[in-house]
User: Which sequence fits this backbone?
């Protein structure tokens, strides 16, 4: 992929992968710093890598390569989901992990509340026996 806009693509890759420097990005991509440097010289990044990163991070190629926001479907339900995804993409990997842990905690609490509610429904039956 040659875009003459590699610098913004690399900036979005850094943002997506929680990297601040080229060295961190090359480690995150499992490539040598020399490879990253050669991409800059050629103003080109392998398209296959972009596809893989987009898949791994549930990210739009339009956003990664062109900086264009994802075209939302007209359903309002999807709007908040896309908004949340875009916001998550701006967080560091550590912050995304922290958000995931909070979500898992909330889901576990909901599951426990459902179990408690089910037990409460059966309690009168049990006491009347």
Assistant:
């Amino acid at each position: 992929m040659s875009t003459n806009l590699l610098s913004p693509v690399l900036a979005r890759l850094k943002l997506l992968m929680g990297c601040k420097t080229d060295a961190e990005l090359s480690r995150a991509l499992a490539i040598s710093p020399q490879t990253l440097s050669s991409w800059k010289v050629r103003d080109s990044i392998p398209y296959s890598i972009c596809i893989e990163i987009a898949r791994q991070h549930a990210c739009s190629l339009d956003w990664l390569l062109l900086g264009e926001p994802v075209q939302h479907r007209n359903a309002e339900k999807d709007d908040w989901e896309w908004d949340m995804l875009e916001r998550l993409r701006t967080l560091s990997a550590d912050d995304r992990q922290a958000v995931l842990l909070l979500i898992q905690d909330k889901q576990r609490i909901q599951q426990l509340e459902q179990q408690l509610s089910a037990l409460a429904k059966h309690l009168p039956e049990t006491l009347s026996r």
About this structure: The chain has a mean pLDDT of 85. Residues 6-128 form one domain. The chain has one domain: 6-128. The helical segments are 6-17, 22-28, 33-42, 47-56, 61-66, 76-89, 93-128.
